[in-house]
Amino acid sequence: MTGLRPITTRQRALVEAYVANGGNLTKASQEAGYAAGDSGRVSAQKAMKTTHVQQYMMQVMGEQFSKHAAMAVGQLAGLAKGARSEYVQLEASKDLLDRAGFKPIDRSQVQVAGDIRVSIDLG
User: Fold this and answer.
1) Which of 64-87 are b and which e, b meaning 16 or more Cβ less than 10 Å from the residue's Cβ?
2) Is the distance from CB of 70 to CB of 50 less than 8 angstroms?
3) What whole-number distance in Å separates Cα of residue 75 and Cα of residue 68?
4) What integer is the mean pLDDT of 113-119?
5) For residue 53, which of 43, 39, 40 has the smallest C-alpha distance?
6) pLDDT (tens digit, 9 = 90+) per residue, 74-109?
7) DSSP assignments along 11-53, one per residue
8) What is the pTM of this model?
9) What's the rounded Cα separation, in Å, for the pair 79 and 69?
C-alpha cells in the first residue's frame, strides 16, 4: 500500500473488533484499548475515517465474506432441498441459479406504431 501510513496495532484491533461485533464502534473502541468514554469513541471514529484504516477494514470484511460464503451456499442449498414451504424452495432455487449465472434474460420490447397528435383547444 504505497503512500499510506502503516496501520497501528490499536487501529488493527479496532477494525477487527468493529467487524466482529457487527459495527458497534463504542464497544470496538473499548475492546481495542481506546480511552473510556466519549474521548475514546471520538478518537476511534477519527481513526476509522482514515484511508489506511478504511482499506484494512475492507480487507477484513472481504476475508469474512469469503469465510462465510460456503456456509451461506450450504444454507441456501438446504432451503432449496428441504424447506417446508414450496415457495421458499422455489425462491432458494432461483437464487442459487441466479448466483451460478443462470439468471433468466430480461426481455422487454416496446413498439410504438402510428402517429400521436394532441390538440388543445383553449378558446
Assistant:
1) eeeeeeeeeeeebeebbeeeeeee
2) no
3) 11
4) 77
5) 43
6) 999 999 999 999 999 999 999 999 988 888 777 776
7) HHHHHHHHHHTTS-HHHHHHHTTPPSSHHHHHHHHHHHTSHHH
8) 0.62
9) 15
